[in-house]
Specification:
By secondary structure, the protein is an alpha/beta fold. The protein is 46% helix and 18% strand. The protein has an eight-stranded mixed β-sheet with strand order 3-2-1-4-7-6-8-5, with helices on both faces. The longest helix has 29 residues.
């Protein structure tokens, strides 16, 4: 088995270094069934010196093969990575994910066991993702209930035979804004009959900076983008399941409308309270409360984008 770990990156050099060093420090057993592995890094037009840094430190990363593109989003970056990958098995992770030393072996074991159990390779393995804001030691974060994900196919930590990606048609490059490109591909993979096999031993720690009120404008923009891409997702797969995922239902409109008091609880009215919580050392709680108005922005964006597409 030849593994190609595909990582799109955009202006994330500090955490990317930790990501790559963790992948270069994998512990593979003697009977590991791994012929070799490569790290296919696709720089999506970074402006933080990522490529220059990698060139200066290339001797420290013998498995890394670096490619670059003009800024076009993660869907296009992952597609370029698949195109350049030499492996028969693709592992997708994000450039802000730091993995444990048994990461590749855990995915490999799950792939082998899954094939023996199902009698085919019509499946992919999905590792665990733990969110953390601990930059110094990201792998020290314990699992939290908020780390649970019900996604069928998410590229934060997944391994899949390359030929299934080719058959499904790879990622849709139309998803140029934030969100949904991986779950949309997941719908197509499900239609091909692929199953999900959980692989909790393959743990990745998703780092993000501690929440601050200064992040709110960017987070709002991401929710607006996610709403627009959600409508594109629904246009491709007009099902009730997708409507639930993108929050384009009366339930979500009612839920977040009530919780946000029809928008009265927003970034302006809640910022002082959120800052107070942050000052108390509770940035995660502040972020969870901020999700009240962030989700309201998302729902409004979904409906606005849907009305716009219907009027064309």
């Amino acid at each position: 088995m030849f593994l190609s770990i595909i990582i799109p990156t955009y202006n994330r050099l500090p955490i990317l270094e930790k990501c790559l060093r963790a992948l270069e420090s994998q512990h593979l057993s003697n009977e590991n069934h791994i012929e070799d592995y490569e790290i296919v890094l696709v720089d999506d037009g970074s402006t933080d010196g990522t490529l220059n840094w990698l060139d200066l430190h290339k001797d420290e990363f013998p498995h890394v093969h670096c490619f670059e593109q003009n800024h076009a989003g993660p869907a296009a970056a992952r597609n370029l990575g698949v195109e350049k990958a030499r492996g028969d098995t693709i592992i997708f992770i994000d450039s802000d994910l730091v993995v444990l030393p048994n990461f590749l072996q855990a995915h490999t074991n799950a792939l082998i066991q899954g094939k023996e159990k199902l009698g085919s390779d019509s499946f992919f393995t999905y590792g665990a993702v733990i969110n953390t804001c601990n930059f110094i030691n990201p792998t020290a974060e314990p699992y939290k209930i908020t780390d649970f994900s019900a996604a069928f196919f998410a590229t934060g930590n997944v391994a899949i035979p390359k030929h299934w990606l080719m058959k499904a048609g790879l990622f849709d490059n139309s998803f140029q804004l934030y969100g949904w490109e991986d779950l949309e591909l997941g719908v197509r993979l499900k239609k091909l009959g692929l199953k999900l096999i959980k692989c909790p031993e393959a743990v990745g720690y998703h780092w993000h900076p501690p929440f601050s009120v200064q992040q709110i404008p960017k987070l709002i923009d991401q929710e607006i983008q996610r709403g627009k891409m959600g409508v594109l997702f629904y246009q491709k797969h007009p099902t009730w399941e997708v409507k639930m995922m993108i929050q384009m239902t009366w339930f979500h409109r009612l839920l977040w409308g009530i919780l946000s008091l029809n928008g009265l609880l927003n970034e302006r009215t809640m910022s002082p309270f959120l800052q107070w919580l942050i000052n108390l050392g509770k940035p995660q709680l502040a972020l969870e409360l901020a999700r009240i108005f962030l989700n309201w922005y998302n729902v409004k964006s979904v409906y606005a984008a849907y009305v716009e597409t219907e009027s064309k």
